[in-house]
Amino acid sequence: MRQNCAMAYPNVGARALVDALKAAGITRVFTLSGNHVMPVFDAALDAGLELIHVRHEAAAVHMADAWGRLTGQPGVALVTGGPGHANAIGALYTAMMADSPVVLLSGHAPRQELGKGAFQEMAQAELAAPLTKASWTSGSPEGVAYDTRRALRLAMAGRPGPVALSLPTDCLEGTVAGSVAEESMAGTPVLDFDSAQALAWLRGAARPLVITGPVTMTRRGREARVALEVALGIPVVGMESPRGIADPALGAFAEMLARADRVLLVGKRRDFTLRFGKPPAFAADHEAREVCREGDALAALASLAREASREGPVKGGWLAEMHAAISFRPASWDHAASAIAGRMHPVQALRPLQALLDSHPDSVFVSDG
Predict the structure, then answer these.
(1) Fewer beta carbons within 10 Å, N or C terminal of the chain?
(2) Angle subtended by helix axes 297-311 and 219-232, to nearest 10
(3) What is the pTM of this model?
(4) 32 versus 357: which is more confidently predicted?
């Protein structure tokens, strides 16, 4: 650690990296220190970027994953190269499966030493590639800021997910000419479907249904789902649990899904949580369409709601039926109790917590499996 932390850190790749993070609105980084990334620590301390230090590299990625899920903004993890990177990448799988925007910044052996037995040399980008949307190694000090902005954008674009960027130490320590210009992470989503056509298709059904994926389970996502449901007058159901249609929070949704004749999937795949879209989970004669697998699901919901508001809601009792089914809870839960003296039934323990969550819709309850 430098003794004179008040001295401005020189304009090198590490400083450009930190400036790019701050320009994108990143205020904190989850990290575990190591030789390859100490220049970033120095630059972060000078710039006032908060560093949350952990005890294992995977924990840094898991924390960045949680940050991304809760805020809807990229969670950033910073680890050293070689074994530090190897320790971290296993946690990328969880983020990938949860559509969580995460950027993993890993230190890396210097470029000029590669292939010569460099300290902790490793094919880092190749190792992370199967667990990320994109994975690459920065090629120059001047390119560090651009690569950082690109990684942040990719993590948020389309279906959110993790991105890995490896940073050779000579890129972090090399001089950069000029400064990092601010660059907005916002962009105009390019939707890969026709809203009017999708709604016309839904309106031709007796029991239409819209199902959305994990990316729509944030506060903004809930608001978008409610707006579409009100405008269209048909059920819009968000799913995020690995239990899928067996998620107890969805009540008797599985029974209703089996009756739906047309299902529009927005940012949601026909994966194992939906039993791959096959009977008996889905009606044998159902039709299903997936839209925005790689597009912006929130923008897609907003586009559908705008289009639906022009024609008014679909008439019928299917929406009320669906709400009643999702709200269903077995009567036995009201009086559930442990058969063993001195112990609590899970329902007894969780009922007060449910009341608390219901009274604070923005609360987050975290528990282990």
Answers:
(1) C
(2) 20
(3) 0.74
(4) 32
